[in-house]
Amino acid sequence: PDGDAATNLEPVVAGAGLELVSEPAPAEAVIWCSNRPDGLDEVLSGAPSLRWVQLPIAGIERFVPLIRAHAGPMVWTCAKVAFGPAVAELVVGLLISGLRQLHHYASARSWRPLPGRLLAGTTVCVLGAGGIGRAVVEMLQPFGAEVVVVSRSGAPVPGARAVRGDAMMAEVAAADAVVLAVPLTDTTRGMVDRSFLATMKESAWIVNVARGGVVVT
Description:
Elements: H1 4-15, E1 29-31, H2 40-45, E2 52-54, H3 64-69, E3 75-77, H4 84-99, H5 102-105, E4 123-127, H6 131-140, E5 146-151, E6 161-164, H7 168-174, E7 177-180, H8 194-199, E8 205-208
Parallel strand pairs: 1-2, 2-3, 4-5, 4-7, 5-6, 7-8
Helix pairs in contact: 4-6
């Protein structure tokens, strides 16, 4: 699709020694610059030599039907690592805002001390160990919080204690803050429901940088 993203990428692609083509037919790679799949099927169908498709976003739910329809030797990649630092910075900002009660102070017309706490000494449970989850762990390091990462595999994550998904609720119950950084799948849709919230501490905060569908609002 036409737009600033495609225009800005052109010199980057050319500078990497790759050849830009004006039509899909000879293309071996496609860098898609829209967060929607509209029009991509036509491009893929017109590129018989295609070997690689790069998507511009971390959450690729909208593209899954296309990926399945064009399954084969083609490699699909997304931009999950690229968004990690920006999203992690937002997570830290929201955690500090919540723990320090900034949402109350922002609208107050007079001084009223409220209970608040530092990130230091808290337990932050990060659900999801992808590019964004790992960036959150890294950005929390200077704040002195204990970080627990929950993932399906429980694979090690530098800077955090890693546990498998079947231990999730125990970690959620012990956490002072829970960060949602999971993809939206059949397993995670509606994962944060009434019973999930009831398991959390009364004082705990939840920060959702995953899809809205992960939470039953």
